[in-house]
Specification:
8 helices; globular; binds zinc ion; Rhopdopsin 7-helix transmembrane proteins; mainly alpha; 78% helix
Length: 214
């Protein structure tokens, strides 16, 4: 049984709420391509994010093409889990071998992830996804800041790339017209790219930290 569900991004709103969103669906595939083009991280937490991204591109393609519940869930679950593994990896970097705070904070991360996934299965809460996701992402950004200042890593340029992508998405949804609809295309490229480049850098730093104590 299909859930009662109606959702349109700017591209299909401009075509009388009819799918498929061709620009959005085909450019989604670049999200799956990034790990294959840039490389896969070696550490397990960050490797899991790469796996989630390579699924997310196909899921997002399905969502934009069919605009259905199945696609929405596949797209959003992979986004939630990417953030989940990101927080876990960042906690491990920040506290390094101090297991107690890693487990304590990651326990809350796990609890929130489950709460988010369950809430997101209820179709009337569809509209809340961007807000709850932004809140969850704020935790990741805060940890990126904490880890970067602790170990003196560069991070701002990567977050800026993602932020430009995020701004283009907001502009396309709020001021939807024939020009701004391409803001969603820019979002598909820039939002995952900034974070993915940061993950690759952090993965290298994390391995350097581990090598240094051996
Ligand atoms: Zn999209």
């Amino acid at each position: 049984m299909e859930n009662e569900f109606k959702h349109n991004f700017c591209e299909s709103r401009l075509q009388n709420n009819e799918g498929p969103e061709l620009w959005n669906s085909y450019t989604s595939l670049v999200i799956s391509a990034f790990p294959f083009l840039i490389g896969f991280p070696k550490s397990s937490m960050f490797y899991n994010i790469a796996c989630m991204l390579s699924i997310n591109g196909f899921a997002s393609f399905h969502y934009h093409y069919y605009l259905n519940w199945y696609g929405k869930q596949a797209d959003e679950i992979t986004m939630i889990l990417s953030n989940y593994y990101g927080i876990w990896g960042l906690l491990r970097m920040y506290y390094f071998y101090d297991k107690k705070p890693i487990n304590w904070y990651n326990g809350w991360n796990s609890a929130f992830m489950v709460f988010f996934l369950v809430t997101n299965t209820i179709s009337k809460y569809d509209k809340l996804f961007p807000n709850i996701f932004l809140l969850y992402l704020a935790v990741t950004i805060y940890l990126i800041y904490k880890v970067s200042t602790k170990y003196n890593y560069k991070y701002k340029r990567y977050l800026l790339t993602s932020a430009v992508g995020g701004a283009c998405w907001v502009i396309s949804e709020v001021y939807c017209n024939e020009t701004t609809k391409y803001g969603h295309v820019v979002w598909h490229f820039m939002f995952p790219l900034g974070f993915y480049q940061l993950i690759m850098k952090f993965d290298q730093h994390y391995r350097d930290m581990k090598d240094a104590i051996l």
